[in-house]
Amino acid sequence: MQTFSLAIHGGAGTILKKHMTADKENLYRAGLKQSLEVGYSILKNGGSAIDAVLAAVTELENNELFNAGKGSVFTNTGTHEMDASIMDGGNLGAGAVGAVRSVKNPIQLAHQVMMHSGHVFLGGEGAIDFARQQGFEMMPDDYFYSDFRYDQWQKVKGSDTFHLDHDTPDDKKFGTVGAVALDASGNLAAATSTGGMTNKKFGRIGDTPVIGSGTYAKNSTCAISCTGNGEVFLRTVAAYDVSALMEYRGMTLNDAMHEVVMNKLKPMDGDGGMIGIDSLGNCSLQFNSAGMYRAYRKSDGTSEIAIF
User: Fold this and answer.
1) In whole angstroms, what is the distance from residue 293 CA to residue 31 CA?
2) 5: β partners
3) Catalytic residue of the set 176, 192, 208, 215
4) CATH at 83
5) pLDDT 10s digits, 242-253
6) Known active-site residue 194
7) Spatial separation of the C-alpha atoms in residues 7 and 35, rounded to whole Å
8) Is the Cα torsion angle 48, 54, 56, 59 positive or negative in sign?
9) Which of 149, 153, 243, 292 has the smallest number of CB atoms closer than 10 Å to its CB?
10) Is pLDDT above 50 for 169?
């Protein structure tokens, strides 16, 4: 039997058990499980890695617990601006969107950019025009509203402060979702989506839609999806760095991810983490923060769903 694997994440940061009720933890675990099952079933039935990561991330975007799609945080003007990207490790095809509004599933739009736009990265109004041209479902602002996100915004509204998705003042959560997969044909893929920072200004775009920083996939090395302090992940080209360490220094996936997460990102206050899968189906889920919403499942029967 050919090996196939899927890993997902729902963000990293100061995720402490003392701040998590049992009911809320169960909801997060259920959301991760649903995403994992949807993506894994595609792989199990012979589907492609691209389709698997696309489906898994779409599920997370539709769950308001996670800062992507429906659960996206508020900008300083009270809107929702979302970023997403997807990459095919077989041909290095990629698609990304930045600062898009009203699009129900930004990861689906990123996929359409890859497949049908002739470009890699579309932003703002141009990306929204493309979405309408492609017949995408456009949602009213209240679709993205939740009391939880609104209350987060109220704490910093009108200030020059922004937050990385938080519950309490001493919490830091890097609200991003992502998936990586290896299919039975040996193809790798990665996808990442986010609502960004609460109270963000000036059309801020982080690492999530930037190919090589928040997302990367190459069949000969690995597929990576990141979550963390986006500015640092951008400056270090974190996702591609893992692939480069594997390709040029012969490092294993696990060792390359450790080098980037612990030895490169952390000294620069690059809190967060990443998930990865290599060409053999090995999974690695690493973070330098207190926790990361994460899960994986492999065709050899091993699986895990974890938060702390």
Assistant:
1) 10
2) 182, 298
3) 176
4) 3.60.20.30
5) 999 999 999 999
6) no
7) 10
8) negative
9) 153
10) no
Report if pTM > 0.90.
yes
pLDDT given for residue 163 in this prediction = 54
Query: What was the pLDDT predicted at 167?
Result: 43
One-letter amino acid for residue 68 of the chain: A
Q: How far apart are CA 72 and CA 60, in angstroms?
A: 11
Residue 176: phi, psi to the nearest 5? -145, 150
| Distance (Å, whole) CA 67 – CA 174 | 8
Does the pLDDT at position 218 exceed 90?
yes
* Cα–Cα nearest to 219, from 304, 115, 93: 93
Residue 163 forms beta bridges with which residues?
198
Q: How far is residue 217's CA from residue 215's CA, in Å, rounded to a whole number?
A: 7
Answer yes or no: are the C-beta atoms of 4 and 47 closer than 8 Å. Answer: no
User: Can you give the pLDDT at residue 195?
Assistant: 93
- Sequence letter at residue 241: D
Query: Domain of 156?
Result: 5-306
CA distances from 82 to 100, 115, 187, 206, 250 (A): 5, 20, 27, 10, 36
What DSSP letter does each residue of 281-308 carry, written as one string?
Answer: --EEEEESSSEEEEEEEETTS-EEEE--
